[in-house]
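Support reply, case 0932

Customer input (verbatim):
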Amino acid sequence: MDDSSPRSDVSGVPDAGAPPSHGHWKLIGPGIVAAATGVGAGDLVATLIAGSRFGYALLWAAVIGCIVKIALAEGSARYHLATGSTMLDGWRSLGRWTSWYFGIYIIIWGFVYGATAMSATALPLAALFPFLPLWAWAMISGLSCAAFVAYNRYEVFENTMKICIGVMFVIVVGVAILVGPNVGEAIAGLVPSIPEGSAFYTLGLIGGVGGTITMASYGYWVNAKGWRTPAWMGIMRLDNRVAYVVTGIFVISMLIVGAELLYTAQIALTNGDRGLLDLRAVLAERFGGTVATLFLVGFFATAISSILGVWNGVSLLFADFVRNMRGDTGSRVGLEKTPAFRFYLFWLTIPPMVLLYFGRPFLLVIIYGALGAFFMPFLALTLIWLLNSKRVPVEWRSGWLSNGLLGISALLFIVLSANEIVRLFSGG
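Our regenerated output:
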């Protein structure tokens, strides 16, 4: 690998140089992008259902899930900053098998995710503006996001994602406050327990909220921000922690809504993204049409941020994959301008439209969950391998805490992956 080239610049953004001595909070951004991308509509439904079935009993699992995601995202970005290379460079150094695995996976995942994401975004739009059918809103969403990602630079993309997560956060936390959390039961829910029948939901809360393949995109967004040397390690860690604390509050708020609004009234939701439309009806009956409409706006912000984040971040991963397969060891500047980046934007947007004609888009969430589960064990295990190897300078290798959290993550996601495959083939 030629490290004399500009350090992992994937956006063309000028190098930010040394970090400033103050004003660190103003620099926060890539972590927000990663968090907004990782929390999708399906995650919201899973959290709501957990709250509706078990009340506050699984609150501890949501907190642990955020800690796990902090470790994974930090490991990915630390590899970028410490080595001056990218995750794809690291994976390829482990052997050609990683490239074959990743290449096959990213093609299959992108096709399924494209349809899932467009359908999820179309659901609130079709509810708010019923003059167009669901499939039309899905196509408009996909094409609009692809055009936005193709023609805007990282700064505009990041600011848009911040607006989305701001809207998501204010509306969801506002609804949680409106339903009135039971503080005593919430505190009790921080004590680990696994009620009967809750094992699947426990694993889902820990492992399912906050991203799958997009966790590996975080390092690329860190580089796009202009952070490319170990001098930015402290800023990156602050950025990452703030983002997942926000995610934690967001997830806990959804659990509160499920516990207070649904659990106490024994109201069941539809599985998949359509469950959020069920919640809209419950909110309309309890608090009126304005609150229900605002919730749909939050639903849309959640779904559109996932599309934008994946269309940008995973396309960068694919472009870097192609660069690696060609054996290009030169500059990584401008990956978003390459034919490979634009091909993957096309792949995420156009071919998946065929799946929209099945007429039951929420079923795609189940398939996506099964495929998405495969990537997390791969990411956790390879991060442990890379971050404890000579590829990383001694001072930036993983310590006992990082190794412990990554190890727990790997074990957790192996169990989740096996569980998803069993559910898929058993028709559960």
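We compared this against your earlier run and they match. Two observations from our side: Residues 181 and 384 are 39 Å apart (CA to CA). Residues 1-14 have pLDDT under 50 and may be disordered. Please reopen the case if you see a mismatch on your end.
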